[in-house]
Hints:
- The complex is a heterotrimer.
- Chain A is of the alpha/beta class.
- Chain A contains 10 helices and 10 strands.
- A 6-stranded mixed β-sheet of chain A has the order 6-7-8-3-9-10, with helices on both faces. In chain A, strands 2-1-4-5 form a 4-stranded antiparallel β-sheet, with helices on one face.
- The chains are: A alpha/beta, B mainly alpha, C mainly alpha.
Amino acid sequence: MMAMEPLLEINDLTHYFGGLRAVDDFDLTLYPGELVGLIGPNGAGKTTIFNLVTGVYTPSEGEIIFDGEPIAGKAPHTITGLGISRTFQTIRLWDEMTVLDNMRVAHHGQIEYGLIDAMLHTGRYQAEERRIIEHAMELLHLFGFERYASLPARSLPYGDRRRLEIARAMATRPKLLILDEPAAGMNPGEVESLMEFIAWLREKFELTLWLIEHQMQLVMGICERLTVIDFGKTIASGAPAEIRTDPQVLAAYLGE
Amino acid sequence: MDQFLQQFLNGLQLGSLYALIALGYTMVYGVLLLINFAHGDIFMMGAFFGIFFAFTFDLPFLPSLLLSMAVVGVMGVLIERIAYKPLRHASRLSVVITALGVGLFLENGMLALTGASPRSYPQDFVETRVFEVAGLSVSNVKILIVVLAFVLMAGLYLLVQRTKWGMAMRAISYDKFALPLMGVSQDRVISLTFLIGAALAAAGGILWGVAYPVLNPYMGLRIGWKAFIAAVVGGIGDIRGAMAGAMILGFLEVYVAAYLASTYRDLIVFVLLLAILVVRPTGLFGVARRQKV
Amino acid sequence: MADVTEITQESKSMVPARNRLVTALNAWFQDKILHAYLLGIFAGVLLERTVGIVIARLLGLRDLPVLFGLLNVFEAFGDLDLSGILEPLFPTTNIPNPWQQAGAALVDVLVTIGSDIPLALLTTLQVTAYNLIIYGVPVFLAALVLNPALRGVVRRLPRAFNLGLLVALTYGIFWAWGGETAYRELVLMYLGINIILTVSLNLINGYMGEFSVGHAGFMGVGAYAASVLTMRLFTDSPAFGPALLPGLTDLPFGLHVLIGFPIALIAGGVAAALTGLLVAFPSFRTRGDYLAIVTLAVNFIVQAALNNMEIVGGPRGLRGVPLWSNFTWVFVVTLLSIFAIRNLVNSTFGKGIVAIREDEIASGLMSVNTRGVKLVAFLTSSFLAGVAGGLFAHVLAYVNPGVFGIFKSTEALVMVYLGGMGSISGSIIAAFIFTFITEALRPLGVLKWVLIPLLLILLMIYRPQGLFGNRELHFNIGGREEE
């Protein structure tokens, strides 16, 4: 495709739950700056793939290479530290914490002070905290949440919570952002603005994006490439236009 | 070898007693996901009501046992209604703390109202007879305890596996909204669980008093905690697990005391239990509930 | 889809966001500077130290009220003994007419209570009047007069200076109050120890949302480790032989205490923290009820181990610990503990602890090293419990394994939940209330331990979030923020 180094390379990724082969020989290569979709019927194993890449589960087999480094089986916070961040199918904000604190905690991997610094409020602690809070507020400002900084996260309306989750993911300074059904529960109008938002996000932060989505309006509208899986297996991949007419994909979706 | 077998019988007896208490913990946990820290003191109440019926009404063993089980069973239901039910929608921790409070209230209340002198059952309550079988001395008390414990446990197992109420008990911790669809009221299932759990603990209390005749209001504290740990080692919420955990605990205690030193009993037993929990964090029969991501 | 998500989100938030008590208190404290209140209290204490006894006598009291009169009120019921009521029905041997005996005992008890009540009421009136005169009036006047007078000055002083001023004032109040009797000083030392225990347990049970039920175990390890160190180094004891550093005890100004005690406390804390590893490592793999059992087992193990160590006296306990604690030591250590925990939970690092409580998986994925954070939380918490144990041992000069059991752990739990999870000011206030109530109920003997759990149950039913669940008090301490 390009002479560029791939950002993420997944080879022969396989995962079992008990005897069930939930992910079966999955391959994917993502290049910097791409926007790629992962689709498939419910229970096809899409979220499992995200969980394997982000370290929630350790893959049974296969390798995952991010930015030249093998990451399969590493702890989630290590993988996030390397530059992969994500959102969740059902929103997983820290509900009782304030919007600002949600943002601050996502800087955890960047903290350089120690426990004693924190307890004694040393100069190093204060400089570091100031930097974290500035970055958090800058992101909140960009995403339009500045006014809500001191409210508990649970008090925001649904759509805002979705966007706050993305803002929080950005606080970890990712190179690759993984979105798990960002348009879940949205009406067509909202999906429209979400698409603009994703495009803006990509532009602004020079991100590589990989997303799972059921809303075809969004998938077909913004993804440059798609992978379709069913029962853990890749059944098709290519440009949205090709996928739309692929007989196997149609069969999987229509349940033939 | 003889000593080994002799101790085996002792372990069986102790394990059966722990099992009768552990079952109550595990049943309540299975239904409400609540660690009923008052359960050890319910066990104590059982032993004390045995005293009440045996002395004040001059009743023999079996009626005393049954009446005590009935009274303490009702007491278990009342405790749930008064102290736990108002908290059914509060955080789980507040109920646990309440249970801790109920336990302290019961044991100290009993101490305040009855005084501190240790008690035991009347001489003729269960007359001890010892038989010699194949070089082992077996007392009728041991046989009584083990047989009664197993009869009660078998009864419980049948109830849980074969009846509508038992099914409801098993179903409730997974989906309490499905219960009305089964034509069963949630409150009744919970009450039934407390009734049975408390009655079993009461039986355990009286049998314990027959085997180890020093009863005092704090007896439920240590024994109760141990039975609880046994339930957890077995995998709390699982009836077979409670029995298995209790037996392991009983045998461990008896053999450590016999072959090592009785002062090391608690230390070694708790270290081993801790080790089991570290290796299998959800207990022997417990299944981890996987969190969806 | 949206509906389902919203419903589950809603049922998840169990902690009420609003807390009218905290809001009201904060409004009240924001209104006037804290200096005014504290000076008022200080004036009250000085008033008591000078003319307190005169006023007490005028009000018909024989002596200064003990613990603001709480103890005097309950002393009226000191002759109460309920043990006859059920003893005949749960007898140790066959007795005639058990029901009659029980009935007679019940009547006796009711008569005793009836005759105690007038005295209790009178005492209540007397001590209320005393408290109003000695403390109520000065605090009211100070708040009224000093607030406008000092406000302007205080506002211009740097914040750190104000903070130091308030700490000094607080110390002065306690010092003057506790100086009246040895008993008062003892209660204040218990108070400090209880505050450390509560705040450190709150880090685990409140902020991290785990359920540790064995905090006293860590306290016990700390108490023994610190005691063994000070006894071995500085005292001749039958247990450990002659002091290893006898020369140091000749130093002027008790310099050996100044050097030795902090080292002993830290050693106690480190020993307790190492024991804390027994809980921290299992916490990587399990949480909730199963982890609660691990903490319980660790508490039992500590007790059983101490019981089996002949070198430290086994079940008889360890005698001859030097009496090094005094109010000042306890005050300083308590203050440091509060500040350390407060700063920790307000830091980005510490907020990771709360994030783990709210959603552990999301925390890991948002770059929180969950194992590292748990390790830090458990180590910090058990370290401080160990330090509290070290202080405790050097207050009583005697420790035995029985002290550090489930009862002590339960006391710590009661204080945490009384104050409210995730609230440091709540923990401090709860430690105040609990320490004073347990002391005041002492005349009731075992009934004390009937009333305390009863209060706990009522608290859980009517205010399950505790006094200040997840909220903090904010005082008006004046001053400008320094850069």
